[in-house]
Amino acid sequence: MTKFFEADIPHMPGVGPIHIDEIKPTLARLEQSLGMDLQNWVLGSVGKKEFSGDIDVAVQIRSPQEFEELKQKVAASPVIIAHEPKGGLILSSVMIVGYDATKKSNDPKHGPRTGKVQVDFMPGGDPNWLRTYYHSPSREESQYKGVFRNILISTIAAFYDREKSEETIDDGRPVSVTRWKWGNNGLLRVERKPKPKANGQGYTKANIDTVIGDPITDGNEVAQALGLDNVKDLNSYESLKLAMEKNYPEELTQRILDSFAQNAQVQDIGVPPELRSQADNELARIKDLAGIK
What we know:
Largest sheet: 4 strands, mixed
CATH topology of the largest domain: Beta Polymerase, domain 2
CATH superfamily of the largest domain: Beta Polymerase, domain 2
Number of helices: 9
Distance between the termini: 51 Å
Structural class: alpha+beta
Shape: globular
CATH architecture of the largest domain: 2-Layer Sandwich
């Protein structure tokens, strides 16, 4: 399954936010149509705030045949207005049951309410892991969306317990790097090598990752593999930052946060103020050392 973060998933036409009171009856009707459990497998921030921009649901899929069967179910459902397979997911739009047009969403990112909501089916081998992977903290727990939490975990995985060969290729990349990789099939230990060119002369800009061992899909084991205390540390951007500051050397924590702040998606949404301040202070220090006014 292709890896999507929350903000990457495209929108179906004509959909809008759903109110928290409308989620249960809408999913109940969809469950009856498809003959499958949906309410116990919602992902992300669904049901944690007054309005949700869409509904993501984990579905256990263990083979290409089961994915085809799911597509056929979705296509045959009279409840689903439109659907589209996309990058290993199935996007759909459904009518909201019990739609109350007087309830207005004030979040401009979600757009206006339309009476229809997007429901995305997120196939995977282990729905429990997908709930961990796509977890989004409530507004009481974090001022940032789950995408920030996921990007920060990915950044931690890229830096923590990273082993690289001393030998490098012409562009400066190590011949081999062993590192963690955060993905929708678990936390993986991989060996990364530059991809050779087809003619055997040098390397392309791409890399080849070879998985070492079995994926880690238990939240507590993931946290421990990344040098943190327990699964609670994985809850949000804030909890991850506190856990790093507690468990990591200051230099490693700073490298991770600097890389996180430089992520294009983080910059598009808005870099956390405390990281902007750090970046501004570092720039001022460099200018001062260089004698630049």
